[in-house]
Input
Amino acid sequence: MSGTPVSSGAEAGTPVFESSLTDFFQLMKPRVMSLVIFTALVGMVAAPGNLHPVLGAIALLAIAVGAGASGALNMWYEADIDAVMQRTAARPIPRGRVTEDEALSFGVILSVASVLTLGVLVNWVAGSLLALTIAFYVFVYTMWLKRRTPHNIVIGGAAGAFPPMVGWAAVTGSVSIESIVLFLIIFTWTPPHFWALALYRNRDYQRAGIPMLPVVAGDVETRKQILFYSVLMVATAAVPIFIGLGGLAYAVTSSVLGVVFLWFAFRVWSIREGRDSDKAAKQLFLFSIFYLFVLFAVLMAEHAIAAFLT
Output
């Protein structure tokens, strides 16, 4: 279970509301789910070969549901943490709008349904990768790493990096070096993205007892690691240029956005005190979202245009 049980709204002196569809949708972490759908779509469009539009839509829906299942199971297990963190206290379980048992059942049902749908109707390579994604996020990251090690984001980031591989496998029925590179771009992007958030949300993580890197190793070490992983990410993002996955537009976009990302990362490393320090971390966090979206959007556009012209 999720450690210390969370008191219901009635026990906390607040009214308990009947669960609604909106509450269950919020359990699925829609903002995270939207990023999963997008990166999976990039993997599908960039993959060689064709997939019937109906099967493509089914694959995307299954991947989205699988991501939502992971979110629901994460909220079930971390209900005690969510209740004491400012940015998560309004989630359905801490507010008493959904019980932990309801969240668990919802997450399990969605997990099984999404994997079976993708496996049976599309192919079992994609279905197996989706199952691995859900299992990795729930068991490896949520249950094992997050409360035990400051490297939770580094290792656990693999869960968020699988979707383009799943999308690629939905089309090709296989895993290739290109899909692995897409995985590695997101994998190396995750630490600077989340550690930037952890820097200016440090008190939240301290209060919840989560050993995020700023809590365990301090701000200075975290800023060094952000800069290191930013350099590694920019280098990884250049790989598609050399393996034929990315074209000229991607090369220009990757280079320009990479320079800007490194500038923000350098500012986080160099500005270590005061309000400007939190401001720099927040700017990097927000730009990191823009960076990944534009980078993958350009890659998808290149392949979509090439497919249209052939």
Remarks:
- The CA atoms of residues 84 and 174 lie 43 Å apart.
- The chain has two domains: 20-175, 177-310.
